[in-house]
Each structure stands twice: as C-alpha cells, then as structure tokens.
Amino acid sequence: MRIDLHCHSTASDGTDTPAELVRNAAAAGLDVVALTDHDTTRGYAEAIAALPEGLTLITGAELSCRIDGISMHMLAYLFDPEEPALLAERELVRDDRVPRAKGMIAKLGALGVPVTWEQVERIAAGGSVGRPHVATALVELGVVPTVSDAFTEEWLADGGRAFVEKHETDPFEAIRLVKNAGGVCVFAHPAAAKRGRTVPEARIAELAEAGLDGIEVDHMDHDADARDRLRGLAKDLDLLVTGSSDYHGSRKTVTLGAYTTDPEVYGEITRRATGAFPVPGTGGA
C-alpha cells in the first residue's frame, strides 16, 4: 500500500480542488490519501463525491498551534468534524486569517511591495487564506522566484519583516480537543528548521505525555540526520512515525506520494480513531 497522510486542496492553500486532488492521488498510484487542509474541513464533501474506486480517503485537518512563541502544526485525523468545541476553535483560527493577511499586506506596502488584498483574495479563490497565498502574490509581482523563497526573514517567515501573528491554538489544548472529537494527533514536520524555530524535544515529550499519537518524520523539509533523530525520539516516546508529501499542487515542487506512511502505522491510526472512519472510493463523479 502507498499511503500519503498530508495533502492540501483549494479549501486552504493547495492549487488542486478537492476533486482534482483525489483523482491525482489515484493517478499517482496511491491507495490512501489524507485531506488535511489548514484549519478547515470544507473540502470533504467534494473529495468524497469524486473519490475514485480503489482509493481510500482519510479526512483530517492541519491545525495551527503555537507553544512558547514557536509556531507548529498539528495533523488531526478522523475526528468528528461537527464536534462543537473543536469546530469553534477551528473557526476562531480560520477567521483570524483574513485580518492577519491584511496586516502582512500593509507591512509589504510599507516595504514598497504593492501586494493588494484583491490580489491575495483572487489567489485564495475562496480557500482558507494563508501565508502561501501572500507568497504567491510576491511571486506574481516578481519579488521572489518561488513561494518557498518568500518564507525567509526578509519576507514572511516567523519574525520576518512582513510577518504578522494570528490566533493559534495551544497544542496541549489541540490534543485535548481532537481526542474529545475522536481523532488522532500527529505533529507535522517537527524538525523543519528552515520554517523558523522548532519545538524542543523536551516539549515534544510533554506533548506525548498529553496524548500526542505520532510525529511526521519523512517529509521534504527533513534531511537524513533529522529523520534519524526523529525516529529515535519517536521510539523513545512510543510515538507513531508517519511520512507524507505535504502536497500543495503547483504551489510546491513535491509530488503526491513522494513520502509515505507504513501500512502498519496507518492501521494503528485508523484503529485509534473513533470520530470518523476511512472513506473507500466507489468511483466518484
């Protein structure tokens, strides 16, 4: 089985619609794909309706969290999307994305970069607005060559010249909310140092004590040394090890299935989840 547990659609900051994402996942030879848009579940219905036969969909979300001033992302899988407390927290985070984006646009304007809200809104195309949409605007204006080049201290990285904070969930609270909604929690790309400061291992150990299920080890932003270190940490803390592409369509160079999760780990994730269940494809529209 080929299993990719971290993918984005136009419901947040990917460039594939949810329907295109599942079709492209099937074409890439995946058996299982997870839809994990940022702080939203709005892509579920479209993805399920288009799900090809032979492909299984894992519903999820990538939750924006912050600990000790460090931004981090929590992958939540197979939770009940209508559970009130988790739904309210996702909406709080998502609603803060618009004023945050407008704040970044204002900072860019002060730096002489003429990004507009209308431009970012067009790029987001109704999705949950995020930094990648602002980064794409910088690419369109020729300020940077790629989206990744916008995530530096010069521009949009944490603490960068045009960075603006948004509401982010305490990760201990995120774990509690996801667990109460029947879901499973995996810390996304924990050693992605090029994105900014990373969470110390001692704090990851505390998250494990609080119910964290796993850490994403095989990821494009982790080099071989980081992966070895994270595997050792996962073993010490009895955490599941996942691998995922973090696919964003044409917004990133990584392809679907570039990194995958072991079938036994996938099976354990589905065993632990009680809020929702994998959706088997029956030949979508």
Description:
The protein is α/β, with parallel strands linked by helices and 285 residues long. It is 36% helix and 15% strand. It has ten helices and eight strands. It has helices at 18-27, 44-49, 84-95, 97-110, 117-124, 131-140, 171-180, 201-209, 224-237, 263-272, and strands at residues 3-7, 32-35, 56-67, 70-77, 184-187, 214-218, 240-243, 279-280. Strands 1, 2, 3, 4, 5, 6, 7 and 8 form an eight-stranded mixed sheet that branches. A hairpin with a 2-residue loop joins β3 (56-67) and β4 (70-77). It is globular and about 50 Å long.
Features:
15% strand, single chain, eight-stranded mixed sheet, 285 residues, alpha/beta, globular
Give a brief outline of the structure.
Helix content is 36%, strand content 15%.
Q: Helical stretch count?
A: 10
Structural class: alpha/beta
Percent of sequence in beta strands: 15-25%
How do the helices and strands follow one another from N- to C-terminus?
A: EHEHEEHHHHHEHEHEHE
What is the rounded Rg? Answer: 18 Å
Mean pLDDT: 95
**Shape verdict:** globular
Task: Present the secondary structure layout.
Layout: E1 3-7, H1 18-27, E2 32-35, H2 44-49, E3 56-67, E4 70-77, H3 84-95, H4 97-110, H5 117-124, H6 131-140, H7 171-180, E5 184-187, H8 201-209, E6 214-218, H9 224-237, E7 240-243, H10 263-272, E8 279-280
Parallel strand pairs: 1-2, 2-3, 5-6, 6-7
Antiparallel strand pairs: 3-4, 3-8, 4-5
Helix pairs in contact: 5-6
